[in-house]
Amino acid sequence: MRGRRGWSWFWMALGALYFFVPLLATFLFSLHGKRGALGFAAYHKVFADPQFLQTFSFSLEMAVCTIILGLALFLPTVIWIHLRAPWAKPIVEIFSLLPFVIPPIVLVFGLIRLYSGPPIPLVQSRFLLVAGYVVLSFPYIYRSVDAGLRAMDLRGLSEAAQSLGAGWLTIMFKVILPNMRVALLSATFLTFAIVIGELTLAVMLAWPAFGPYMALMGRDLAYEPAALAILSFMLTWGLISVIQVVSRRVGGNGSSVGGAH
Amino acid sequence: MAFLELSGVVKRFGRNVVVDDFELAVAEGEFVSFLGGSGCGKTTTLRMIAGFETPSAGSIRIGGTEVVPLAPNRRGVGMVFQNYALFPNMTVRRNIAFGLRVAGWKPADITRRVEEMLALIHMEELGERFPHQMSGGQQQRASLARALAVRPRVLLLDEPLSALDAKIRASLRSEIRAIQRQTGITTIYVTHDQEEALSLSDRIVVMNAGRIEQVGTPFEIYNCPATPFVATFIGNLNLLEAEVADAGLGLLTVAGQRVRAAGPVPDGSRVQLALRPEMLTLDPAAESANCLAGTLASVVFLGSIVRLGITVGGLSVFLDQFNAPHLALPEVGAPVTVGFPREACLVSGMGQMESASVA
Fold it and tell me: Among A168, A247, B5, B347, which has the highest number of CB atoms less than 10 A from its own CB?
């Protein structure tokens, strides 16, 4: 029994090393920004570069737009599928896998071909970028929302609300959405992470986004990209821990029925 | 004057007819149960009244108004669900207040009404609990209070007790009936549990394969079943093959022994004789109208009653006897006699159950 336990610790440590050694190495490397001394010089430089803030805020803005558009599009759709068209579930599931199957480069060439001229000349518009991001984040939003809806008794709750006189807007905002906070949060953060790091769409549509900026830095500089990598890691981990905290607080509040009689 | 009226209601899913020609008139304040096995169409009928299903044909009227074209939230129908369907993100108070808020009540009136409802279900102390912090029984009471708070015209209960354990079920059952009497609300109760239906209802609608088999008071349903289905579905029943000896006099032959029903029996050489186990007595006094001789084959102890299995010339007959400390039963294998009055004989002819007590 003890030997078995020892082995499981061994494998866990090995896994942790696999993940943390490169991270640690990157972190240590990023501290060498100033010759001969360990320090946060590289980080200072990153923050001092006006392009960092510009590109980051641009991507942030795009992320917010993507999240709003994505949720506005998929949330009602998935709820509708759950309630009224369960037969459509497999079809939508296949659609939701397409962004994984079709590389972004194909998507972006398609978008450019379609929208560079009349009747819909969109290629100059930010909307096309956001639309592309919505496609990329579709699988993540769809899966999060689907999981959130599965975790509650959607039909029962919406029928109960209807029998109490509620219309669809009330049901949506007072009953369904408050019960899928965690799912919405994870959809939001996943979309955020995708948009912030996205390279292909932004480069091909020529937008000054954070992804291309990071790529550019990685090509031209040594320590700053390492600092950027660590920063983006911390951001992602920060967001994940927010999900954890919220889901734990809401946890017992799930739609589980039954319990002790 | 009927308050809730269903006439010619049909529901088809594709080619499958789930509810067929459903006719029912429910008086105001009446408690009616839909009773039947799973898939008999009882829940579908309830959901059509609530507005969650649209009838393929027929009309549903509440208080004289046709409700089929109305959305569920415009019908003034309260519903209680099998799995409670309380809003998990709200406390009991907020759950009860939900419908009142939607209806635009004043905050002071909402508070008063919510307290009133909490008192009605004896849960004044639990108003600030979330659904997951309560037992199933408490959740179902909260759900009942939520449905009643908005003063619906009709209350629909869809197997509200089937997710609960036996003890809670019995106590909540009487609570539901008491609350229904107190509020005087017209109630439709769907259940597959005959004991629930018999103990709660003013009238019972027994359903089978989408059709109504019989509508009647619990007393009528139990004592005068209209069809063989109702006879076998409600309560326990001994079904014995019998030959008609004299239809006019109600004389039958069961396993070579003569039995006389209270009235004429249908013509035909073979019929089925149905006897309720609790109508039979063991080793009756000489004046008992009907006697069947047999041997005791089994004794099963069921708590308050003891069920005896008796073989009568190759047929098996069950007899229920109240349990008592001084109960002395013959040994298994001993010869016994089963006695029953003429009125206990239910005779099936061509599919219609003729109750001798009516004849």
Answer: B347
Identity of the amino acid at B59: S
Cβ-defined contact of A159 to B87 (cutoff 8 Å): no
3-state secondary structure of B180: helix
Residues B196 and B274 in one domain: no
**Number of residue pairs across A and B with CB atoms under 8 Å?**
99
Q: Domains of chain A: which residue ranges? A: 53-221
Distance from the Cα of B275 to chain A's closest Cα (Å) equals 38
Please list every residue in chain A whose beta carbon sits closer than 8 Å to the beta carbon of residue B89: 175, 178-179, 253
| ipTM, 2 dp | 0.80
Looking at chain B, which residue has its C-alpha nearest residue A260?
A: B135
Distances from the Cα of B99 to the Cα of A19, A22, A162, B78, B183, angstroms: 52, 57, 9, 10, 18
CB contact under 8 A, A165 and B102: yes
Same domain, B201 and B246: no
CB contact, 8 Å: A160 with chain B?
Answer: yes
What's the distance, CA A142 to chain centroid? 12
Which CATH fold topology does A53-221 show? MetI-like fold (1.10.3720)
Q: Is the pTM higher than 0.80?
A: no
Give residue B90's domain range: 2-231
- For the stretch A8-65, pLDDT in tens is 999 999 999 998 999 999 888 888 877 777 788 888 888 888 888 898 889 989 998 9
The CATH number of whichever domain residue B211 belongs to comes to 3.40.50.300
pLDDT score at B359: 30
Say which CATH number the domain at B248 has.
Answer: 2.40.50.100
In total, how many domains does chain B have?
Answer: 2
Give the chain B residue nearest A157 (alpha carbons): B85
